Every structure is written in C-alpha cells, then in structure tokens.
User: Fold tRNA(Ile)-lysidine synthase from Streptomyces halobius.
Amino acid sequence: MGPHPAVAAIRLAVRRVLHDVLNDHLAQDRPGAPLVLVACSGGADSMALASALAFEAPKLGVRAGGVTVDHGLQDGSDLRAAEVALRLRALGLDPVETVAVQVGEATRVAHGTAHRGGGGRHAGGPEAAARDARYAALDATADRLGAVAVLLGHTRDDQAETVLLGLARGSGTRSLSGMAAITGQDGRYRRPFLDVDRQTARRACLIQSLPVWDDPHNTDPAYTRSRLRHEGLPALEKALGKGVVEALARTAQLSRDDADALDAWAADAEGAVLDDSGSLDIAALFALPPAVRRRVLRRAVIAAGAPAGSLFARHIEEVDRLITAWRGQGAINLPGRVGVRRQGGRLVIRRG
Assistant:
C-alpha cells in the first residue's frame, strides 16, 4: 500500500526538483554529492517540504540539510527556532543551522514587540524588511555550507495571493506572474510546492504526525497578505465559486510566459535604439510596440543607476510620454538621481 495521496503529492513535487538539481550538478562536473537545504519556519508548508526532502534526497544521492531563521520579532522566537532545528534533525537532515537576524527597530514595533536596536524603517514596510533579512541569511548560510539549492515552501495558495497583490498594484504583466519556480543567483532558490495547495501540505503533516507551528502574524489583520488570505480570497470564492486559487496560479504561469517573451524582445530591441553614448533613438523607440518600448526604457534607466525596487509604472509612463506625447516638457527626475530628457531626436538618460 502506497503513501497517503497528500504525502505522495509532496514527495513527487520534491523528487522532480531534486532530479533537476542533481542533473545541473552533474552537468557542471562538480565533485561529491550536492547539498540541498530546506528553509523551514516550522509551519505546515515548510515542515511538509522538510519531510519530503528527508525522504527523497537519500534515494537520489543528495545530501539534505535545513536552516531556520529567527527574526527576533516575538518573545521566545529563539526557543521556537531551536525547537524547529530539533525537528529537522529528527527527520534526518544534516547539517541543520539556526540563524538569528536583525530586521530593525521599526519592524519590531510594527510586530508588537519591545526589542530595540537594529536599522531604521524599511521602505517596503515590516514584511519586506523581514523578508530581506531572511533571504540575506539564507544566502549567507548556503554560501558557507556550499549548498547548491535552497527549497522554499511557497504553495499554490501563496502564488494566488501574490497574483492578487500584483493586480492591486497595477504594475503590469510581470507583477501578475507571481513567484517563479526558480530564482536567485545561479537558480539557488527552488519552490517545489507551487502546484501543491496549502491544504495538501497541512494534511501531509497530519498524516505523518509532524508538529507544526502556526505563526500568529499569518492571521493578523494588520498585514495585507493576511487580510487577503482570510477575507479577500474567501470572498472571491464565495462570489465566483471554487477554483479561484487554481485559476490565479494558471494566470501567474501564463503571465510569466508572456513577460519572459516581452523581456527577451526588449533585450533584442535595445541594440537597435541605443547608441554608443547611451542615448536612445526617439524614432526607433516610437516604432516599437508600447509593451516592448516601456521595457527598453526601464532597462535603460536601471542601467543608468535607478534602483529597480523604487521604479514604478508611473515613472516609466512619464518617460514614455517624452516619446509619444512630446509637448516640450522638461527633464524627468527618477529615483536614484537619474534624469531623462529629450534632446533633438534622442532620449538622454544621465545620473546626477
């Protein structure tokens, strides 16, 4: 008799990713067995992922380890992180690392703690500050241990939430493409569960008698994603029927395919409009489809020094109007002290 369907589903998802990781490792002719880490918070999604990695890795000759990050945002978080590490070791993972990070005083206050110290307010808010600190810790740990991949427990439900948040920002196709299955330097981060729903992961933990920790922040209405999870998506399913999560996840993949194609087109088109001085030919830009032209413009202003995280659709639209709705307007100032002006038949982009 085979494993429960939920357990079989999470194992199959991990097995597919490990096959890819192993093939990449062999193709690069690296010595020894590759080390794959699972990032585990102790929640149902990441505990299910850890259990599947522990089961599948030895069968493929892959070393399996784990890392848990203590953000220091709640009283007793260090003890909870130590407990998660013990659970990972009990699954047979080795090495297992616990990493404490500092995410700033403003973030701690926002999370309702009394800790002091750290950095100032993060431009993206407390959730973004915690995320940045977490990924920095994961990167450092993977580098130190020589891990070829870090598995993340994002599920299909997380993907659906990400698509809706992107829709609310109105930032275009790329923002609707959600999370990629592979991201990070050299494809370090892998998300095996993007086709697995949250309920399946939780059921797999229950079947395997794996204790899980439910982060109270995930139900705190102070956070946008929490409100979306507990109010927004249920309201959509009530109005539109079941299947909303699956449809949003499909939208993410279709949008990603479209965005990738448009990005590739823009990269090719860039050479035809860019001259040696770094200015862009107005007539050649005007001839491009708007979706391609705006990508070329975004690439150009980022290359000039504008931080990608601070560039919004409205910034690129203003630059685009220098091409499509020229009325003699002056230079446009962008984040990162980057200025864009129209000079004759050229678009000049300079920092300073």
Summary: Confidence is low (pLDDT under 50) at residues 105-120.
